[in-house]
Specification:
This protein is 37% helix and 18% strand. It has 382 residues and is an alpha/beta fold. The strands form five sheets. Strands 3-2-1-4-5-9-13 form a seven-stranded parallel beta sheet, sandwiched between helices. The chain has a three-stranded antiparallel beta sheet with strand order 7-6-8, with no helix packed on it. Helix 5 packs parallel to helix 6. The relative contact order is 0.14.
Length: 382
């Protein structure tokens, strides 16, 4: 068996490469070495048993050369950053949508490809799922329509704070950000192509993936990487809103196992799957735990600022992936955070979080609590 992994030099992709090779599967990688992540250097963790091509996915000639010799494709290449996507719109659309479309066009020209796995995101859901004071299920199309002055939480029509619930794969999709919109387009392009051309296709909706090899110097990297980079430099991790917003995290080794399972299981059902642990954790709790592991003298700083495009709560129901793919995550958040902290402690990191804040503020994408109330009024008026 031979698998093409796009973005195979990246954080998640490299773990998938390692797991495939560990199972005796040949791997070929296409990766553009995105400068924001790799800073012009090949990472030291690359698996020497894989075959690498350093080029963008828009290289049609390379795809024509590589695809005839693979049995499956694991499409991980992506740009990361919800905030950045809100102003770097064309680049995000080109990278995630146009390049995926080109990849699908080339895949369908080769009958040898019998498996397709694509990385999607929990961002396709937008705001999470809630229960109001009357027991009704609510899926907010806009969180700003459910907020009230002085709070970042969501409230029902009776003025009662709503309770967050786990979200399922068949829940309504309403992405809040350009990033989420491009990931939705990416997963639908893959699923529709797979169904049309009889290629078994799985789209994994990643929640908060974390672990070693995260790009600590990328200001638009994952939440934990941003916090760790700050703490490593003796600075307080900056927590948006009031810190009580919840996220759902999964260790990168579990993500790699799920991808390889989908690629290698002959009868793995096609479709979309939440890929996470299904355990909500507040952002403040994550920041606090990393401080305890890396530098107990540093405490999280709650900024009371809202980043446009952010959601309040979203955590996944994982019953579908357990039942249909027989997959269960193995690393809990406590063990995973300790492992991440042990690795971070030996790394060099440039704290570029202030750069992200500046860029977002200049574009009016980061607002304080008072302005957040104004956004609520604007949303109600539309």
């Amino acid at each position: 068996m031979r698998i093409l992994v796009t973005g195979g030099a990246g954080f998640i992709g490299s773990y998938i490469v390692d797991e495939l090779i560990r199972q005796g599967i040949e791997v070929v990688v296409i990766d553009s070495l995105e400068n924001q992540v790799h800073h012009g250097r090949k990472p030291s963790y690359l698996n020497k048993s894989a075959e690498y091509h350093w080029a963008p996915l828009s290289d049609a000639g390379l795809l024509a050369k590589v695809l005839p010799d693979v049995d499956g494709v694991c499409h991980q290449a992506a740009l990361v950053g919800v905030g950045q996507s809100m102003y770097d719109i064309a680049r995000y659309c080109d990278f995630s949508v146009q390049q995926t479309a080109l990849l699908m066009e080339k895949i369908i020209q080769h009958k040898n490809i019998r498996k397709l796995v694509v990385a999607s995101s929990m961002s396709v859901y937008g705001e999470g799922k809630y229960q109001d004071s009357g027991g009704r299920i609510v899926r907010p199309s806009d969180r700003l329509l459910h907020t009230r002055q002085g709070s970042f939480d969501l409230f029902d029509d009776e003025g009662q704070q709503m309770t967050a619930l786990p979200i399922t794969e068949d829940d309504h999709l309403s992405p809040y950000s350009i990033y989420g919109l491009t990931k939705l387009a990416q997963e639908r392009i893959a699923i529709i192509t797979g169904k049309t051309y009889d290629i078994p296709t799985v789209a994994f909706r990643y929640f908060g993936v974390y672990g070693r090899r995260q790009a600590l110097s990328n200001p638009y990297a994952g939440l934990m990487a941003l916090f760790a980079g700050r703490i490593l430099n003796g600075r307080a991790p900056l927590v948006f809103e009031d810190g009580r917003q919840t996220r759902d995290f999964i260790h990168v080794t579990d993500v790699a196992r799920a991808n390889v399972l989908a690629l290698t299981t002959p009868d793995a059902p096609s479709g979309v799957y939440n890929l996470t642990c299904g355990v909500p954790v507040t952002v403040e709790e994550v920041a606090d735990a990393l401080c305890q592991h890396l530098n107990p003298d540093v405490r999280p700083q709650i900024t009371q600022k809202y980043r446009k495009g952010d959601i309040r709560h979203c955590f996944g129901d994982i019953s579908k992936i357990k039942k249909q793919l027989h997959f269960t995550p193995q690393t809990d958040i406590h063990a995973g955070l300790k492992d991440l902290a042990d690795w971070v402690a030996d790394q060099n990191s440039h704290d570029l979080l202030h750069q992200m804040e500046e860029e977002l503020s200049q574009r009016y994408l980061l607002v304080d609590k008072a302005a957040f109330a104004g956004l609520e009024a604007d949303a109600a008026a539309i």
